[in-house]
Amino acid sequence: MRTEELLKYDNQHVLHGLSVVGQYQDYIVESANGVMLTDTDGKTFMDLSSQAISVNLGHGRQDIADVAREQMVKLTYAMILRGFVNLPSIELAQKLATIIPKGLEHFMWTHTGSETVDLAFRAANLYWKSKGTRKYKIISLYNAFHGTLRSVTGASNVNKGVMEEVPPAPGHVHIPNYYCYHCPYDKEYPGCGILCAKFLEYTIDNEGRDSVAAFIAEPIQGPGGFLTPPPEYWSMVREICRKYDVLLIADEVMTGFARTGKMFAVEHWNMIPDMMALSKGIVGGYLPFGALAMTGEVLEGLSGHFFPGGSTHSGNPVCCAVASKCIDIYVNERIPEHVAEVGKRAKSRLEKEFLPLPHVGKIDGLGLMLGIEIVTDKKTRGLPAPGTNELIQRRGKEKGAYFRVMQNKLCYSPPCTITQEQSDRGLDIVYSVLSQLKAQDLT
Ligand SMILES: Cc1ncc(COP(=O)(O)O)c(C=O)c1O
Questions:
Q1: Which of 5, 156, 266, 285 has the fewest CB atoms lying closer than 10 Å?
Q2: If you take atom 7 of ligand 1, which residue's CA is the nearest one?
Q3: Would you list the domain boundaries of the chain?
Q4: What is the domain class of 75-332 according to CATH?
Q5: What is the tens place of the pLDDT at every residue in 115-173?
Q6: Which of 146, 148, 313, 404 has the most ligand 1 atoms within 8 A of CB, as the residue to mutate?
Q7: Domain 2-60+336-442 falls in which CATH fold?
Q8: Each residue of 320-346: pLDDT tens digit?
C-alpha cells in the first residue's frame, strides 16, 4: 500500500528525464548494498546496470561515505570560481594526473557528463579563437549520446532524433557510426577499409577544414548499445584530426574508470585525445561530479583568456575528496584488472551459451560493458518492435535482476566490483530471460 501511494504521488508531482512523462517504473528503490538493490516492498534484486552505468564501485560503501562526511565537517564549501582555490581540488588534480593517459593532466571540474561535454565545446571554441580562427562546427556520430543539455543535444543522436531540440543548436554535423553488425555502408570488416573512420576525413574536407572545431565520440558507444569500433578506428581518427587541425574529444563519461577493463577505454588503442570528458565513475556515482581533461597544448591556447564556463559548485570540496578516494580504490583494489578478468569470463559465457539462442544476434563490448544484441531473426538481423525493451527489462526484474535494454541490446554492466560468483548468478538470470523469448514477444 505504501508503495502504491508513493508511486501515485511521484506520478503526479515528479517529472522524470529521458522518459515519457507520466510513464514510470512500478517499484521504488529504497536502499542498496554492493550489487544488490532493495525496494520499498522489501524485495531484493541484482543491479546489473550499475544504475546509469555509474555506480562502478558498488552501492553503500562505508569508506566513501566516511570521506564525504569528514570533508563536509572540515570544509563543505569553498569556491574555485574567479580565481579562488581550495585544497581538495588541487589534491584531486594531483591524483587524477597519476592515472590519466599521459599528456592529459590539466582539468576543469564539473558535475555531470553533459556539463563536461558542454565545457569541451566551449574550450574548443575558445582554443580556436585564441589561434585567430573561428572554427565552430562539431562533428559527432549518429547513435551517439553526449548528454541532455541544450548545448550538447546537437551532438547526441541516439534514438534517431528523439534528443533533437527545435530549433536545433547550430553547428553540429553527424557522420555514420562504427557498427559492423549493421554497417551503415553495407560493408564487411576488414574488406570495408574502415570506411566509418575514413568518412570523417571526407566530411571535414567537404564541410571545409577551416570550419570544423572538433570531433567528439565515445570510445565505445554507450547508450547507443555498447558498440565497439573496429580495431583500427581510433588510430585512424586520431591521424585524421591531426592532419586537419581538428580537436579530438573522447567522451569517456561512461567508459572511464575501469568500466572496459582499462582505467580509460582509449588505452585499448593507445590513443591520446586532445580532451577527454569524464563523470559517472570518477565518484563511483556517489555524488554529481565530472571533469574535463585536456592536453597542455589546449590549456596553453586557453591561457590568458577569460573562460566563460564553471558554476557555483565547481571544485566542490566534498565531491573532490570523494573523487580522490574513489581513485585510491580503483588503484589499490586493482579494479580495472578485476573487470578485465570477470568481463573475460562473462564475454566467453555470452559467446558460448547465449549466442546460439535464436534471438541473440551478436555479442559486443569490452570489460563489464557487454552488449547482447536482440534480433527477431538471425539471418535478417531484424530489429524487435518498440516496447520489447520494457518487456525484457520487466521479466528481468521479476526474476531478480535490474538491467537495461538500450536500442535492441541487453546491456550487461554490473558494478565493477562484482565477484565472479555474483556475475555468474546475474548472467544465469539474463540467460533465463533471453532463452524464454518467443518470436511473438519481439513483434
Ligand atoms: C557517453 C556519455 N556522455 C555524456 C553523458 C551525459 O552524462 P550526464 O547524464 O551525467 O549528464 C552520458 C550519460 O549517460 C554518457 O553516457
A1: 5
A2: 113
A3: 2-60+336-442, 75-332
A4: alpha beta
A5: 999 999 999 999 999 999 989 999 999 999 999 998 899 999 888 878 777 788 889 99
A6: 146
A7: Aspartate Aminotransferase, domain 1 (3.90.1150)
A8: 999 999 999 999 999 999 999 999 999
